[in-house]
Amino acid sequence: MVSPNNTGVQVTEFLMICFPGMQDTQHWLSIILAPLLVLALAANFVLLFTIHQEASLHEPMYYLLAILSVLDVILCLTVILKVLLIFWFNMKPISFVGCFLQMFVMNTFLPMESSTFLVMAYDRYVAICHPLWFLSIIKKQFVINAGIFIVVRNLLATLPTPVLAARLNYCASNVVENCICANISVAKLSCGDIRLNKLYQFVSVWCLLGSDLVLILLSYCFILRVVMCQQSGGTVTKALSTCGSHLILILFFYTLLLVFIFTNKAGKKIPSEVPILLNVLHHLIPPALNPIVYGVRTQEIKQGIIKLFKH
Q1: How far is CA 12 from the centre of its chain?
Q2: Torsion angle (degrees, nearest 10) of CA 148, 154, 156, 157
């Protein structure tokens, strides 16, 4: 829908057409996306309820897992639910405000997830490399400070992205060739210069996620060095088991993100549907895997879930 003004045509809402070359068949993707969404929401709610109910899980590491689950739930409800509504009910229109609100959530909460992984890596680093200091450093106040750090850091760094996009003059097409209100997908519809938008997104993403990834890998290098120096085979096995699930999920999170970035940069060499699908999956697969992997690999969570279902 558009409304005329003195300077031409002013866009008041956008139309999300998802996969431009798959308009007749794209709804079949809901067969994959819908079960994954249900799994992601159910697994995260079970994890949150288990941590809330089980007193033995009221520890900093599990509070960080709870923060991760809350971020995952919000991302799923904000992004994937809209995609399914497009597939099932052809609800392509999204209001001007709604589009930039979705853009804000995506650009802010994904880096928040990355920062949560960083704090969790620091928790494991202190636990394994400096065990005598662990109880004096990793306390409930640490979780509070970490939560403030995660929110403030990423909010300040990512808020300009949707603000810069919303300030552009949208006076022509309102058809977004994407399933979600991604910054560049929307900004390129404007009549103005979007070089600043591209530059800021590039710098903010690599500064936030890039620095997180470097620090996480560095912390695990220290952890691996300490673990390899341990004489006890049981200690090595326990440490690797504790950190293994965390590292697997982190590598999956960043690998999928990097693949999306590089395929998006490849432009016309790769079909446009590929980066769109990767972007959607990046908002769905990690939220589905995170609580499941932690639930299976962490004995305390597994026992808490079993106890919950017994009751």
Answers
A1: 28
A2: 160
Q: Which residue has the tokens 């404007």?
A: 190
Half-sphere exposure (Cβ direction) of 217: Cα atoms closer than 13 Å: 8
The whole domain housing 201 covers: 2-310
Residues in the chain: 311
Query: In the chain, what is the greatest distance between 2 CA atoms, to the nearest angstrom?
Result: 78
CA distance 171 to 97: 16
Considering its fold, how many domains does the chain have in total? 1
25 CB-contact burial (10 Å; exposed 0-12 / middle 13-18 / buried 19+): exposed
Name the residue with tokens 């995170």: 290
Among 132, 128, 293, CA closest to 219: 128
Alpha carbon separation from 87 to 18, 19, 27, 172, 174 (Å, rounded):
9, 10, 5, 25, 19
Question: Which H helix or E strand runs over 298?
Answer: none
Q: Which residue matches tokens 């969404």?
A: 37
Placement of tokens 């897992």 in the chain: 65
Q: Look at residue 176 and give its three-state secondary structure.
A: strand
- Here the CATH number for the domain that contains residue 224 is 1.20.1070.10
| Residue 14 φ/ψ, nearest 5 degrees | -115, 155
Q: At what angle do helices 60-75 and 285-297 cross, to 10 degrees?
A: 150
End-to-end Cα separation, the chain, in angstroms:
52
Task: Please give the chain's pLDDT, 311 residues, in tens.
Answer: 444 444 455 778 899 988 877 777 888 889 999 999 999 999 999 999 999 999 888 999 899 999 999 999 999 999 999 999 999 998 999 999 999 999 999 999 999 999 999 999 999 899 888 888 988 999 989 999 999 999 999 999 999 999 999 999 888 788 998 889 999 889 989 988 899 998 998 899 889 999 999 999 999 889 888 887 776 655 556 666 667 777 788 888 888 778 877 776 666 677 778 888 888 888 899 999 988 887 777 788 888 888 888 87
